[in-house]
Amino acid sequence: LRLDGNELISLPNGIWNLTSLTELKLNNNNLEALPTSIWNLVNLPNLNLTWNNLTSLPDEIWNLINLTALWVSTNELTTIPSTIWNLSNLTDLGLNSNPITTLPSTIWNLSNLDSLGLRHNSLTSLPAELANLTNLRSLPLFSVDWNGLWELAYWFFYYDTTLKTQDNITPEWYTMSIQWNWTTLDITVTQ
Predict the structure, then answer these.
(1) CA dihedral angle for residue 179, residue 161, residue 76, residue 149, rounded to 10 degrees
(2) Higher pLDDT, 8 or 117
(3) Which of 5, 6, 11, 64 is nearest to 35 (CA)?
(4) Distance CA 12, CA 19 (A)
(5) Rounded to whole angstroms, how far apart are CA atoms 33 and 79?
(6) What does the buried/exposed string (b/e) look like for 56-85 if buried means 16 or more CB atoms within 10 Å of the residue's CB?
(7) In the chain, count of helices (H) and strands (E)?
(8) Is the predicted pLDDT of residue 55 greater than 90, yes or no?
(9) Is the pLDDT assigned to residue 172 strictly greater than 90?
(10) What is the DSSP string of 42-96?
């Protein structure tokens, strides 16, 4: 069901009765909240909520255990509920361009996650539990650039992928590119 780009501020209640939906595109609207009845969409694998005005996600969204892709980029989310671990089938999680300051440590329970977007947030650190997401190791690009990261934990260096951390905060501007169990490690930082 495509309802993207309609400047919706709320959703009709009838949508939540469509329990056989395989995709729900609500991106590019003006949604500020989702009704708690979203839990009715138990078979939904793909939910696109990008480019809205969401400040939080209802706890009931984490009952959507068949979700494999959840995109909530470019909203106003500051936190992600710790109940995110219920989405064990999730393979793609887009959290880019939100003012998120921390990630819950329970994110490590998303063992099937192979794509994680964290660009343009307000993160100052990443939970060490991200190291347990072994499928992220095969990502072509794991981006955490445009955050306020002061440091990267040692476990990042075990990934065999490309890590991009452009425009994070450190005392100096520098670019470093090294090869060590990585395809590419590119750290570009600004103060």
Answers:
(1) -30
(2) 8
(3) 11
(4) 14
(5) 14
(6) bbbebbbbbeebbbbbbbbbebeebbeebb
(7) 0, 10
(8) yes
(9) no
(10) TT--EEE--SS--S---GGGGG-TT-SEEE--SS------GGGGG-TT--EEE--
